[in-house]
Amino acid sequence: MKKTQIILVVVVIVVVGILYSLPRVVVDNEENSENIGQGDVAAADSVAEAHDVQIPETERGTVSGLIANLENAESKENFTIFADSLASFYQKAGMYDSAAYYLGKGADQYSDLALMEKAGNAYYEAYGFAMDQGKMNMLAEKTRGYLNQVLEADPDRLDLKTKVAMTYVSSSNPMQGIMMIREVLEEDPENQEALYNMGVLSMQSGQYKRAVERFETLVGYYPENVQGQFYLGVSYFESKQKKKAKNQFQKVKDMTEDPMILSSVDNYLGQL
């Protein structure tokens, strides 16, 4: 799913954690928007330094070599190769903020839109896994910094606009993000990421009947979207539509073998 890339195509348990860490806002009411406060932003360099300490002894030589090659690279091509290699290493290790840090170095050095998009997407992925508010703020700001430059050159990139919008949802101005997602849906009513995210936000704010509408629309267009199908079941459950919830969860069980999703489904079915 959200890889067409739906936001936070992380396993459902992680998504649930992020879902309930968001501020409680009413997504279908109009509110005045304010500019997001910048606050104190942590230095990105400290992220990579902190993770370097966590690298297993057997891997440190490889990483140190890649970093040295990166610092000595004399061409954009070589710099990108080493930055991508470092990012790949950190992503496999689950250190998504460090992966984003090295991709960001390439974008900063060469001001290339493709590199900025890659860095912005990496920071967005790291943002999706962050739980500390200060870290979330820093990663969200980094995401916007890179992706907004791509959007300035190509305003039709609704996928990137949706990601930028979602970084505002956990900020001091969540309605700014919600309004941006609405704009995406006005332009593209079938946009998979926007429909999914509006459904998630409706759930988070306790508007389960609205969430049902969003997820029913989503899976109507994209029946293979497992997370959407799962959250439709949750929305039925929370809106007291027990028969629909049971049928929906049974449908999800036939769609996936992911043990985390199946465990969650069984938990809900046990309550019906």
UniProtKB/TrEMBL annotation:
Domain of life: Bacteria
UniProt KW keywords: Repeat, TPR repeat
Keyword Repeat: yes
Pfam families: TPR_19, TPR_6
Residue ranges crossing the lipid bilayer per the database entry: none
Protein name: Tetratricopeptide repeat protein
Keyword Repeat: yes
SMART domains to which the protein is assigned, alphabetical: TPR (SM00028)
Listed PROSITE patterns: TPR
TPR repeats: from-to residues: 192-225
